[in-house]
Write a structure and sequence with these properties.
The protein is an alpha/beta fold. The chain has one domain: Histone deacetylase domain (Arginase, Chain A). 45% of the residues lie in helices and 12% in strands. It contains 10 helices and 8 strands. It has an 8-stranded parallel β-sheet with strand order 2-1-3-8-7-4-5-6, with helices on both faces. α1 packs across α10 and α5 packs across α6. 49% of the residues are buried. Keywords: Hydrolase. This is Histone deacetylase. InterPro entries: HDAC_classIV, HDACs, His_deacetylse_dom, His_deacetylse_dom_sf, Ureohydrolase_dom_sf.
């Protein structure tokens, strides 16, 4: 089984200019089912979690203002989204899908969220199209319920996981690792436990060499018993916002490296998909589909 969270897209909750990237959340399941990488039984519908699962990583005042639509205009501008009830429901549903994915990964080795990767959400604010931090909440859920003692977050989205770094700044049980474009968003970076900022136009060979030299060592040093993997495909050369130069094949090799290491070390891994902003939707869907194909080959 390859458990995959599917959350309602709520595309109508977003401004027209943001709806194109949301298409991947509908097209990706269709592609995986069409080609037989996944079956209908692999999918589960994401549901909002209990409020305490959110408040482990987010301040109660921020959550309540978000729930009631009381963010200031400045706070809304920072997220990139105008508030709506549908948008709030979308965010809590995505977060619930990642928590459930973490639970299923304990049983099946790997689990996915078609959405997620909201790593720019801080404890008391949102930014960069992220309002609530799904993998941070799931990591805190694992620790609170005794399902993990040490967690490693491997963030390979092209943008630094600044919100995740801030949330776990004083939490020694969670190690945050971010590989990202040095000159990309956010302009002001937070400090992860390990940051690897990359120059513009970093190619397959340079990227994969650095990751292959770093991740095995981290697994040995951190000794996690659970891994979260943020598998953004905005590292592609075709991405409009990424500024790196990975090919689709290089992006797939990245996934193979991460997922093979997790499998070899018998580490359950939850995967959230993160960013992807290539001009052609087929480039985004195909790169994301490769992550599932790789996992199906390794964990089946």
């Amino acid at each position: 089984m390859l458990p995959i969270a599917f959350a309602p897209c709520y595309a109508h909750a977003l401004p027209v200019g943001h709806r194109f990237p949301m298409l991947k959340y509908e097209l990706l399941p269709e592609q995986l089912l069409y080609e037989g990488t996944a079956t209908a039984d692999d999918f589960f519908v994401a549901m909002p979690p209990p409020i305490e699962d959110i408040l482990r990583v987010h301040q109660a005042d921020y959550y309540q203002r978000l729930r009631l639509g009381q963010l200031t205009r400045q706070e809304e501008r920072a997220t990139g989204f105008p508030w709506s009830e549908a948008l709030f429901q979308r965010e809590i549903t995505i977060l619930g899908g990642t928590i459930e994915g973490a639970r299923l990964a304990l049983a099946h080795g790997v689990a996915f969220n078609i959405a997620g990767g909201t790593h720019h959400a801080f404890r008391a604010r949102g930014e960069g199209f992220c309002l609530l931090n799904d993998q941070a909440a799931a990591a805190a859920w694992l620790l609170a319920h005794g399902h993990a003692r040490r967690v490693l977050i491997v963030d390979l989205d092209v943008h630094q996981g600044n919100g995740t770094a801030e949330i776990f700044r004083h939490e020694p049980r969670v190690f945050t690792f971010s590989v990202h474009g040095a000159r990309n968003y956010p302009a002001r970076k937070e400090t992860s436990d390990l940051d690897l900022p990359l120059p513009d136009d970093t190619d397959d060979a340079s990227y994969l060499k650095l990751l292959a030299e770093t991740l095995p060592r981290l697994l040995d040093e951190v000794k996690p018993d659970f891994v979260f993997y943020l598998a953004g495909v905005d590292v592609l050369a075709t991405d409009k916002l990424g500024h790196l130069a990975l090919s689709r094949a290089g992006c797939r090799q990245r996934d193979e490296l991460v997922l093979n290491l997790c499998h070899r070390h018998q580490l359950p891994v939850q995967v959230s998909m993160g960013g992807g902003y290539s001009e052609h939707i087929a480039d985004i869907v195909e790169a994301h589909a490769n992550t599932y194909r790789v996992a199906a080959g390794i964990f089946s």
